[in-house]
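User: Second chain of the day. Same drill as before.
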Amino acid sequence: MNIRDYLAGAFHRAINWLALEVERTSLYDANRVLQDKYDASATYAQTMDLEVDRLLNESEQTREIIAEKEAMIISLQPWNTALDSYCRKAYTLIDNIAYEAKRNHQGEDYSIYLQECITPEAWEVKNFYRRTDLTGSNHHIAEKAGNRVGHAIKWTDDKTLSKRGDYYFLPSETIVAKKGDCEDHTFLAMSAHKEIGGAWGSLIQNGKKVWHAFNVLFYDGELWVLETTGSKASMRRYEGSDYDIYFIITRSRTYRVKHGVAFGVIAGWT
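Assistant: Same format as last time:
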């Protein structure tokens, strides 16, 4: 082999080696770029996961804050009672109902909302319940108030109290008269405590259905009926009883339990 052939071979080997080195370097650089991008993507993904967690935590905290504010607002309302809480979930909240000619002043009939007949701040009412223990569970409160009403107020048909038929006494008038029909008993018992509501419906009596007003309360996870038209209050669970409810009223709300009956001529709603 002459020197020219040797140099030519060495040159070609050098070129091949250089080509291999360039290829290895390119692959290394490419791998490094890919690794850098992978690391950057992993870091970004981790950052995004942390950001998502942060936003979820903030969202949960915001919901908790809103829930606390709503609960605070509700707690300040006069209608925040166990009965209202139950009725809002179980029944339909409707406008308060005013009935025509349920009251009279100087010979002139006028309409009235049912809630206008609940007067806990009236002096006669406060004096009436002055010695009645209205503390403890809703069951205890209702029983004590019901016994006070049943003992002091004699059930009397509206026909003997007013020439206008179905007439609503205010609780103070019922107390002074010492008598009243089922609505009058109901309003007086409702005026004792905000946890005692009123119900308009019917009762099976001697095998016959009679329209009736009575009291209700929520206790121990159930709706209870409070009957005050006897000399002593009686209480029973509404479910499975002889009572049937169409409307429930609280001190400031009305709930429809079922359709079908209006207990008088409706003057309007609000």
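The chain has a mean pLDDT of 84.

User: Great, on to the next one.
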